[in-house]
Structures are given as C-alpha cells and as structure tokens.
Amino acid sequence: MIPLSVPQLAGNEWKYVKDCLDTGWISSAGSYVNQFEQLVADFAGVKYGIACMNGTVGLHIAQVVAGVQASDYVITPNITFIATLNAIKYTGASPILIDVLPDSWQMNLALLESFLSQESELKCINGQWNSYRKEDGKRIFAIMPVHVLGNMGDMDKLQELATAYHLVIIEDSTEALGSYHKGQHAGSFGKFGVFSFNGNKIISTGGGGVIVTNDEALAQKAKHLTTQAKVSAMEYIHDEIGYNYRLVNILAAIGVAQMEQFPTLLENKKRMDDYYRSELSEIGDIEFQMVLPCVVANCWLFTFKTKYMRELLDYLNSNGVQSRPFWLPMNQLEMFKNDIYVTENNNSNEIYQTSISIPSSAGITKAEMAIVVQTIKTFYSKL
Ligand SMILES: Cc1ncc(COP(=O)(O)O)c(C=O)c1O
C-alpha cells in the first residue's frame, strides 16, 4: 500500500534521540526543546517559539493568552480538522463558522464581511473596542483562519477585517509550515500562529506543536502556562491554573533533526505537486485546489475534487493506493449543529462530497507517484 502521508526520518533523528537517552535528558527540560522552538520560529520569520505537546493544545493556549473568554465568539472556517473547533470549545467560547470558497477552500471573507457588517456592532467597554453580536450582545473577539491543506487565502483582506472589527488573529497554521502569502510566512500575521508536527505533517516529532508570536510578553505567558505556571525554579509556587502541555526533549530532538531536513522535504513536496498537477490535469472531471498567485503553498496533502469521489476512494484503497475523504464540515457534526454557520451555497458540503486526498508523503518516490497516477487513470478509463 502506498501510504497517504508518513514521516521521512532520514537525518540525524537517531543521533539526537540517542544523545537524549545517553545523557538522561529525555523529559521536560533539555537543550533540544529550546533549539526546536527557535528553529521553527526562525523559519516562520517570527521572534519567539513555544514548543508544546501538539497543535491542538497550542491553539488552546494561544487563545487563553490572547484573552478569549468563555462568553466570546471565535470566527473560524466551517472546513477544518476537528482540533480547531475543540480548541475553541476548551476555552468555553463558541465558534462562528464561515463557509469557504469553492475553489481555494479557504474562509469566504466576503461572506464574513457581510455577516460582520450586518450582525455586529462596535462598542467601547472599559476603554476597549470590540465587536459584539447584535442578537445576543456577546463579544466577537478572535478570528482563527485555517490554512487548509497548507494553502492560504487573502491575508490582506483578513487583516483589514480584523483591524476594522477589532478581532485578534490566531492562525491555525498547523498544516502550513513552509507556506507564504506575498512572501510572508503563515503563522506570522496575527498575535499567534500554531504549527503541528503530528505524524502526517511534512515533518513530524511523532506528536508536537510550536506556538509562534512576535510579542515577548505573550511568548513568556504562553511558556508559563504550558509549564504548570510555576514561578520559581526551586520552590513549588504556581501563580495561576497552568497546563502540563510542554513538549519533551526526546521529541524535540526528533524535531531538530526534522527541521534540518525541512527545506529538502519542502522541495520534494513541490515536485510532487507539480507532477500530480501535470499528470492529472486532463483526467476525468478532476478539479485542483486553486492557489492564489501571491501564495506559495507547501503542498502538504494533494487533494482534488471529482464527482466520482466515493467510487474512486474505494477503487484506490482496494488497489494499493491509500486515499482519504475530506473532513466532514464542522456544522454537520453533532456538537456544532447549533452553532452559527454563515453560508450562501454551502460550499463546505460540496467540497466534502467531492474531495479526495492521495498519497503525499514528503519522501514519496517518482515510481510511487507514477503508480498513483496510473491507478487513477485506469479508474477513469473504466467509467
Ligand atoms: C487544521 C488542523 N488544526 C489543528 C490540528 C491539530 O494538530 P495536532 O494533531 O498536532 O494536535 C491539525 C492537525 O492534525 C490540523 O490539521
């Protein structure tokens, strides 16, 4: 079976893990943690990085530090992985789900703008301007764009809306290490960005995340909260409810080795994307995800639309090519059925009904890609 997306561990992973084992520094302190978070921050062009257990807890902490309250709304796209929504719910806040564009699959900002202009009002309370939903008076505090599949939407427009409506930007850039909008790296547009290093990402620590920010005080606060809010190196004194969300040194060691290979793996991904796009462009009714000319995407997981998605999915999986459907839109999940969903055409559902992801490991070989392409061509030739 050609796998969907598996890690490529061809560098110094063994060496650095052995170093942890040999020295006994396997746990919550150690030099690899600092190195890894700085490598990720530097790559993203952001000043500070805070390593944590995974992207989900990173999104949680970023919201807590940004000031999201249980009574707030957080705006996010209706097409995302469940973790985005879970992290919002951990804070107690409620999501406002925005439908996505049918071609790029990113949040529809025109739809968001008309929602905000019609259904919210700006108020200054205790010297702080925020948007409030007219219907229930609840604060609309943050916007969490998700760079779906490593693609990016119009970040100029997103920032313009965030400024006009006083929204704090927290980027779910978990899938977007190596993606740029007008030369600016994903995760660097707002107060916080969060990256994930789980097993299916371009590089992996097994499980891991890094929160990035340009604000030193926010970085310190995030570090403090992810490490049990301990105020003294010696004494067990804690000044608030903290979390044990830190990344352990042995996983950060893998992360350092992975970051060393990241530029090469990113190039492989781009070659893979070029190959799939050129080989599959005329096949059946296949429609690719649109990437804006000002975006350089990291090509994380190759996904396309076809009305034969279900049949193709069965065919590929039973012919040695691991493939997956797309996420069920958030508004269709039981837990979020009663949350606000802003839509005109329900593009999210159309994308869900038609999209399929095909093998995209950073280490995928040309021979494997040729098999994937040939299997897809055979499927369409039989229709
Ligand atoms: C869009 C999105 N958000 C959040 C996450 C959560 O990251 P993690 O799996 O590291 O918790 C992921 C990755 O799995 C993701 O794809």
From TrEMBL:
Pfam families linked to this entry: DegT_DnrJ_EryC1
GO molecular function: transaminase activity
Keyword terms of this UniProt record: Aminotransferase, Pyridoxal phosphate, Transferase
InterPro entries, sorted: DegT/StrS_aminotransferase, LegC-like, PyrdxlP-dep_Trfase, PyrdxlP-dep_Trfase_major, PyrdxlP-dep_Trfase_small
Gene3D superfamilies according to UniProt: Aspartate Aminotransferase, domain 1, Type I PLP-dependent aspartate aminotransferase-like (Major domain)
Domain of life: Bacteria
NCBIfam families given in the database record: NHT_00031
Family: Belongs to the DegT/DnrJ/EryC1 family.
Record's protein name: LegC family aminotransferase
